Amino acid sequence: MTGLLAGGPLALLAGLFGLMSFVGLAYVIAATTLSVRFLARRQAAPGHYPPMTLIKPLHGAYPAMGEVLEGFCDQDYPAKVQIVFGVSDGDDPAVAVVEALCARRPEADIVLVVDGTQHGSNRKVSNLINIAARARHGVLVLSDADIAVAPDYLRRVAAGLAPYGVGAVSCLYVGQDDGSLWSRLGAMALTYGFLPNAVLGKTLGLADPCFGSTIALSASTLAEIGGFQAFADHLADDYEIGRAVRARGLAVAIPPMVVSHLCLEAGGGALVDHELRWGRTVRQIDPGGYAGSVITYPLPLALIAATLAGFSIPAIALFLTALGVRIGCKFAMDRATGARSGVWWMIPARDILSFGVFIASFAVNTVGWQGRRFRVGRDGVLSHS
User: Fold this and answer.
1) In what order do the strands lie in the sheet with 382-384?
2) 217-255 burial string, b = 16+ CB within 10 Å, else e?
């Protein structure tokens, strides 16, 4: 590091970026270590398995959708399970997927709701409101359409919800690609960036996450926080639901498990738009913390430092160290999660893209979502742009 700090203004700037990279390396190592330990924990089985209604808002279809949705029918769960799918348009291709699933699994308790009623700017929440009216059981488990789960998913959700004082359960997730380049890059961002950052933030009390990958709560708790109607205009609806649960004095539990988020971006534009929306959402929730997360990009920071330092020996050494740490993080997360979201030689491209999205997110006040663009207010409320 001392070799980066000597010299004129450029060298001092190089030293600043080098210092941030060095701090970032310590952060990445800590986040990865905590994640590995957290996911290795064992869950105690609950004393009771309540009947559950799974709520799945759908919009559009993708090639593996039938298989993914069928995974919710294949749950090893010793109580009744109802699955309610919902679309806002009868011509939505997801309707055919659900109808085919019903034909394959006639024994499953499946309901399809087709209702275009809009309750606010957030179209997913409008869908949730329409779906929830058909739920029959006292525990609701909602998850996004692109989430895939293992057969023990509901057992582990029930275990997370069982302790006294827990008002909701949410789940960490890894990225699952479809084999294409942009999908793989999207999956890598989740498994090797989002996941360890989320675990470290939760462990240190720096964040109180609640993810759309899973939100499980009782119908009574949902009613107490105003129902889904209370979140009909919010961009970060999942976070706002978690915040409302915590405001009632209840905890949002994160069990030591992961589900899979299918990364379905067909091109670079779709990937960047999706990640900008996610970055804008996090910036809305925690502006200071989001700005401070610049240190979570040690590899791009080391590259900037090396460029400013004229690729001096110390700067190159820092860059190679950062590269080695990030590749090590990839393999450690693969082992801990059982996922393999990308190949090691794509790490530099993925990290540079992530850093670019991070910088661009500070200039974004509109987001693309389900084919529409919305302006995000300072309070996180969506309005048509």
Assistant:
1) 366-369, 372-376, 382-384
2) bbbebbebbeebebbbbbbbbbbbbbbbbbeeebbbbbb
The structure's pTM equals 0.90
**Tell me: the pLDDT tens digits for 283-295?**
877 888 899 999 9
The CATH 3.90.550.10 domain(s) of the chain lie at 52-282
pLDDT tens for each residue of 246-268: 999 999 999 999 999 999 988 99
Within 263-297, residue ranges assigned H as helices are 268-285, 287-292
Are 122 and 231 spatial neighbours (Cβ–Cβ below 8 Å)?
A: yes
Token pair belonging to 98: 């659900």
d(CA 120, CA 233): 5
Cα 94 from Cα 172, distance rounded (Å): 25
CA–CA separation, 248 and 225 (whole Å)? 8
**For the segment 4-17, what is each residue's pLDDT rounded down to a tens digit?**
555 567 888 999 99
Percent of all residues in the chain with a pLDDT value above 70, rounded to a whole number: 92
Do residues 222 and 310 touch, judged by C-beta distance below 8 A?
no
Burial 333-348 (b: 16+ CB within 10 A, else e): bbebbebbbbeeebbb
Q: What is the CATH number of domain 52-282?
A: 3.90.550.10
